[in-house]
Design goal:
The protein is an all-alpha fold. The protein has helices at residues 2-65, 68-78. It starts with a helix and ends with a helix.
């Protein structure tokens, strides 16, 4: 009976260490996913702005070339 008690007392600290390590790994994984999601959202916003600027530039170039009706359709589709 004494041997079982000693082995059980050794198990408790190792179990605690395992739970703490598991919690740290889970927190690190969660923070990594959050960081990747923020980076994805930032790049998505940047791409949306680039597309909007490209379409605006194309419309202004059409106005410069004298194609006002084509530029109006681009403006109407992009502006609220």
């Amino acid at each position: 009976m004494r041997i079982n008690c000693i082995q059980f007392h050794r198990l408790i600290p190792w179990l605690g260490i395992g739970l703490v390590a598991g919690g740290v790994i889970a927190a690190a994984t969660y923070l990594n996913f959050e960081r990747m999601a923020r980076a994805f959202e930032a790049s998505l916003t940047t791409m949306d702005r680039l597309i909007h600027d490209l379409q605006l530039s194309a419309a202004l170039k059409r106005i410069h070339n004298g194609e006002v009706s084509g530029a109006v359709s681009i403006f109407e589709s992009r502006l609220p």
